[in-house]
Design goal:
Elements (H helix, E strand, L loop, with lengths): L1 H5 L3 H15 L4 H17 L3 H14 L10 H4 L10 H4 L2 H5 L4 H18 L10 H5 L3 E3 L2 E3 L7
Antiparallel strand pairs: 1-2
Helix pairs in contact: 2-3, 3-4
């Protein structure tokens, strides 16, 4: 989404972001593709062909989550899964910079991460499905499908 928004002028980004969210939160890939075509038409109508091209180029990465269990979509749709646990820590880095010894600053940062882990780390929804995904189970629109003669 961010790559597409960068191709648009500032005054159009709010409207475009709403349209892009409709694409990402569509219940099925077919509906997402329909909304993509509407967005591309909107872009071309307003003279933002480069944004439409960017969406086309990044399309497969944007809708990859449809090939995984629906319960995991909330985790896959996030823009930066690594950064979110560090949000609380980022607020306190100025305090850590005031330490004269690197070891002390590291200790404070480590302790903050340990506290954040206990309170804020989001656990994976439906962890029991990980083994099936790892084993190669196929999903379409978040629902497991049978393939090559095997039952779902």
């Amino acid at each position: 989404m961010l790559n597409v928004l960068e191709q648009l002028p500032q005054h159009q980004q709010v409207a475009a972001k709403a349209k892009l969210r409709e694409i990402v939160y569509a219940p099925t890939r077919v509906e997402a593709e329909h909304k993509r075509k509407e967005f591309e038409a909107w872009c071309r109508q307003h003279g933002y062909g480069k944004a439409a091209e960017t969406l086309g180029r990044d399309w497969e990465r944007m809708v990859t989550f449809y090939r995984y269990p629906r319960e995991h979509w909330v985790h896959l749709r996030t823009t930066n899964v690594v950064e979110s646990p560090f949000a609380a820590l980022r607020l306190r880095t100025d305090a850590a910079k005031r330490f004269k010894r690197v070891e002390r600053a590291t200790a404070v940062i480590w302790k903050m991460l340990m506290v954040a882990e206990k309170k804020k780390f989001r656990r994976l929804n439906a962890p029991e499905l990980l083994a099936r995904v790892y084993a190669g189970a196929r999903y379409e629109d978040g629902i497991e499908v049978a393939w090559e003669g095997t039952a779902a």
